[in-house]
Amino acid sequence: MPAGTPREVAEILGAQRTAFRDATVDYLLRRLPRLRRVAPLRQRHRAEALAERAVGLVARSPQGMLRGEDAADLERAGRANRRLGVPLRVYPVLAQALKAGLRAAFEAAGEPYTAAARDAEALAEAACASLARGAYGADLAGVPAATAGEVVAVEHPTRTITALTVDTGAPVPRLAGQHLPATTPLAGGEWAPLSPAGAPDESGQLTFFLHRAKHPVYRRLADARVGDQILFGEPEGGLSAPAGPAPATIVALDEGYAAARSLVFELLGREEPPETHLVVETRYPGEHVELARLEALAAAASWLTVTAVSREEADPWWLAARQTGGHVRRGAAAVASLVDSPAAADRTVRLVGPAALAEPAARDLRAAGVRDLEVEAWGDPA
């Protein structure tokens, strides 16, 4: 039966992903061959991500109408694409490329090209217009596409964690809890989300805690030496610092610690911060690299308490067991105590960490009745 609804169009695109992707990319690169220079090692990955995003967009968009939240996401993507060197003139060509991909998918499926497919063409036009609008708006506002910084200090508190301090020469406009896409010349076009560990200030110096074992791009960034250059894109994501009279809990899972630390330091600058409990979860006890400093801070700030937990009971031999300077609850999970607390629903909760940990934790918190919950989760570098 011919595709008569957006969902049926999406099903054809999903079944013919390869034809859709290849036709779209082939059209784009034939019209704009210079795009081959934009992160060439990541072209296939980005083309696959584009195909997946297009399938989802068509499935949830009625008759070629772009939903408001999708338009906003695309505008943010247009801003982010500037750091890759993607020029504005790409987007009208991309719209035509997506149409070529649609027709190729229908041809591969042996399906007639229906009115619903032409609605999907209108959706492609609207989506590319949103991408261009985001990029153009940032250009018009004078927002730099990327910011370069020089590594000024490197520390290795454990075998798997590296602390980098980078000087950008000028303040980076951002909010506490946001992350910056970061790359180096040796990263092969991959960008990793890095969260500055301090509150925004005027110094232009940013400190990051990198977990080397997480992904190859983190290892390349962690191998940086003093004097090396790191390139940052525009700040993304972020959590609002807790405000108001309700007690707050900030939960940091693994590399989410830096963003949580940034929120705590943001609260330090307020006259009346709320009663705040910082819970830091790591895989191994020895990964609590700043526990002594955090506990000293909590001792000086009556509104702050700190709990450190680790999912594993002990550090493996390759991590060089170390003294954390404080008490770590071993074999525990950060969210478990919150879920079991009868007062959980009344607390303001901020949860930050990799998606594999943060998303299940967020589901548990919502199931426990937590209403004021903000979550910052990220996937693998792209």
UniProtKB/TrEMBL annotation:
Q: Which cofactor does it need?
A: FAD
Where in this chain does the record put each FAD-binding FR-type domain?
Answer: 144-242
Question: What GO terms are given for molecular function?
Answer: oxidoreductase activity
The name on file for this protein is: FAD-binding FR-type domain-containing protein
Q: Which organism is it from?
A: Corynebacterium otitidis ATCC 51513
